[in-house]
Write a structure and sequence with these properties.
Mean pLDDT: 95
Low-confidence stretches: none
Radius of gyration: 22 Å
Number of strands: 18
Structural class: alpha+beta
GO molecular function: FAD binding; oxidoreductase activity
Cofactor: FAD
Distance between the termini: 7 Å
Number of domains: 4
Protein name: Glycolate oxidase
Strand order of the largest sheet: 15-12-14-13-17-18-16
Strand content: 15-25%
Keywords: FAD, Flavoprotein, Oxidoreductase
CATH topology of the largest domain: Uridine Diphospho-n-acetylenolpyruvylglucosamine Reductase, domain 3
Oligomer: single chain
Largest sheet: 7 strands, antiparallel
Organism: Hydrogenispora ethanolica
Helix content: 25-40%
């Protein structure tokens, strides 16, 4: 571990000279929320100081100073991550980009939006929607910042058709650990000019650089959207239908799976009724496009596949009110599970789509084997599963013992099925051992070498992704 410097009174004075004293928080002024992200399990790391930056120039000066003094710096947006990526495990400076929240330009000729990193996903989506445009990535946490989405390569529910955040980043401005400013990409649609450092930065979780401006690709807003809620009598039939849908060449925007227990929890959490909760398992599918006839044809084709595979019914949602009723419940699944237990841990493995049923069955076996409550839902269309292990009334000792076994077995099974440790939430500090185990020493040595090249002093978001 590098020999970091603790902050002194002189360091605080230097930071105040850069940002002003009102944006340099210490002691009781640091809200406890800054100690952790949305998964407190991976938190409890208080920063020595929180600095609220407002410009790339300020961040460059802060990083230059931190580099000279060997002070660790942890970048943070909204803190909505789920694996401890934005918590200061080595202390030092917690650098918030939340104040950098301006949408700088919507370019309708090049179909791009240029934005600061602190803009919330929901604000970006609303701003481009007003121009009849769509920013396709659709992670579940709409209050996340766009900078955080890019740094974790967030996925979301539209990934089946549209891909993930990486597919929409055209350019970025980045401050490197030594304070240098780097421009990568731009509004260009193609680029074969050397190594793609832009793509290396995407998903790097703030360990290689701090993004200060983003240029993102947009698409025309689809004119027609239809959702299907499809109840199945059991989970096997539900998940087993997904490969048939994919094979049919229909192109849903989203294919989500859910179980009754999670739906009921979301109903209680939101105080709203779900359209149907009579079955054990459900698929939720969305189709979009510019031709109503084409969208309806694809929806009908998939409805027939589901009914032939044993679906109880197909409920069509083709109005804004019905769509909201279904998707608001889907968006509340995580918070509903969190509210039902004093503590939980999460894994978001991704497996090949034709292995989803095998993995989901394995999760059920683990629940019975270890006598611990496990809730799961996820993106059936791209193989990304969200699995939550709940403490409930277990003693601390029993919880730790069972949790360790369950998590190891989950990751081992994902590796066995040719999957990966994370589909969209990232590695943070919580999943470093699992990444190393799954990818092997050659891979791990390479990513540590990349970290060393960008950040030889190891001051930027230390302890994350590659452990340095």
């Amino acid at each position: 571990m590098p020999d970091y410097q603790q902050l002194s009174a002189a360091d605080l004075a230097a930071l105040e000279a850069i940002c002003g004293p009102e944006r340099v928080l210490t002691g009781p002024a640091i809200n406890e929320d800054y100690h952790h992200d949305e998964m407190p399990e991976y938190g409890k790391f208080p920063p020595e100081v929180v600095v609220e930056a407002q410009s790339a120039a300020e961040i460059a000066r802060i990083m230059r100073y931190a580099s000279e003094r060997r002070i660790p710096v942890t970048p943070r947006g909204s803190g909505t991550g789920l694996c401890g990526g934005a918590v200061p495990v080595r202390g030092g400076i917690l650098l918030s980009t939340a104040r950098m929240n301006r949408i700088l330009e919507i370019d309708e000729e090049n179909l791009t939006v240029t934005t600061e990193p602190g803009v919330l996903l929901m604000e970006l989506a609303k701003a481009v929607l007003e121009r009849d445009l769509l920013y396709p990535p659709d992670p579940g946490e709409k209050s996340a910042t766009i900078g955080g989405n890019v740094m974790t390569n967030a996925g979301g529910m539209r990934a089946v058709k549209y891909g993930v955040t990486r597919d929409y980043v055209r350019g970025m401005e980045v401050v490197l650990p030594n304070g240098d400013l780097l421009e990568l990409g731009g509004k260009i649609a193609k680029n074969s000019s050397g190594y793609s450092l832009k793509d290396l930065l995407i998903g790097s979780e703030g360990t290689l650089g701090i993004v200060t401006r983003l240029t993102l690709r947009l698409v025309p807003l689809p004119k027609k959207v239809i959702s299907l809620l499809v109840p199945f009598p059991d989970l096997d039939g539900c998940i087993g239908t997904v490969p048939q849908i994919i094979k049919s060449k229909a192109v849903p925007t989203a294919i989500e799976f859910m179980e009754r227990e999670v739906i009921v929890a979301a109903e209680e959490y939101l105080g709203k009724s779900f359209p149907d909760k009579s079955s054990d398992a459900y698929l939720l599918l969305t189709f979009d496009g510019n031709s109503a006839a084409e969208v309806e044809r694809q929806a009908e084709q998939v409805a027939e596949i589901c009914l032939a595979a044993g679906a109880v019914d197909v409920l069509i949602s083709d109005t804004e009110e019905r769509q909201e009723a279904i998707w608001s419940a889907r968006g509340a699944f995580l918070e509903a599970i969190k509210s039902s237990t004093p503590e939980m841990d999460e894994c978001d493995v991704v497996v090949p789509r034709n292995r989803i049923a095998v993995f989901v069955k394995f999760v059920k076996e683990l629940e019975r084997k270890h006598a611990i409550r496990i809730r799961s839902f996820g993106h059936a269309g791209d193989g990304n599963l969200h699995i939550y292990v709940c403490k409930d009334d277990l003693s601390e000792a029993a919880w730790r013992e069972k949790l360790d076994r369950v998590m190891r077995e989950l990751y081992d099974k994902a590796i066995e099925l040719d999957g990966k440790v994370s589909g969209e939430h990232g590695i943070g500090h919580a999943k470093v051992p699992f990444l190393r185990q799954s990818e092997g020493e050659t891979y791990f040595n390479l990513i540590q070498a990349v970290k060393q090249a960008f950040d030889p002093q190891g001051i930027l978001n230390p302890g994350k992704v590659c452990g340095r």
